[in-house]
Known about the structure:
The protein is mainly β. The protein has 2 domains: 1-78, no CATH class; 79-272, no CATH class. 0% of the residues lie in helices and 68% in strands. The radius of gyration is 23 Å and the shape is globular. InterPro entries: LptD_2 (IPR045659). This is LPS-assembly protein LptD central domain-containing protein. It comes from marine sediment metagenome.
Amino acid sequence: VTLLAQKKVNDFFTVTERFPEARMNIRKLKLLDHLNLYYKNESSAAMLNENFANDVPGARANDSYDAVRVDSYNELSYPTQILDFLNINPFIGSRQTFYSDDANGNDNVIRDVFNTGLDLYTRLYKIHDIETDFLGLDIHDIRHLIIPSAQYAYIREPNLRPEELKQFDEIDTFRMKNAVNLSLQHKLQTKRRDESGRRKTVDLLSFIISSEYTIKDDFGTDNKLQDVEYDLEIRPYDWMYIDADARLDREKKVFDTFNADLYIDKKGEFRP
Length: 272
């Protein structure tokens, strides 16, 4: 259980104020000893206020809106493995969200969202016999992991669309969706000694290419491969972390976004 409070302190930024918000998560609780059935819950309750910045076009401070929101998401999943190499995880979920009032002025409304899906992935790897301390990298073998995956997700059209709700965060944005997310991850790992002298596996590099194939959605999209996303993480040392991402517009054949961050903590205590 966590408590969060957030208050706007100046007029330059739009802030979703929370005074307060309580959250409770149950992460993959196994229900039966003899059956690989898992239960997950994510619940929250909050008093929310969307407080607009003064310089937002068309918005004024008195345009801010508020609501009490109580949200609960429940999911059942059955992870298993077939053919000794293919991991499969079917799941089914239901979300109920109470709002003290909606965007149309109706009081005490409840939005229902039903979703289901299927995760598929496998792991391929090869170990390279490399021992080096070049540039202080402290490499003791390198394992190259290749993880192809596909995630199918179906969200039934909610009884209340996002346009009918006050918008605070991603909880309020669910729409009808039928799509498959395809991804390919490359990961490089090595072993390094921790403070106790034991060797532990650490990630040196992770590179993910992904794209969503939309079968049908609420915007009228049918059978379309969306933009390609790239995500790169590099950790050559415990005290250095590089994070970069980019998005390729498939229709224009150009990158429309690119971001890169470098984190350094010479104390070796950095944990992103």
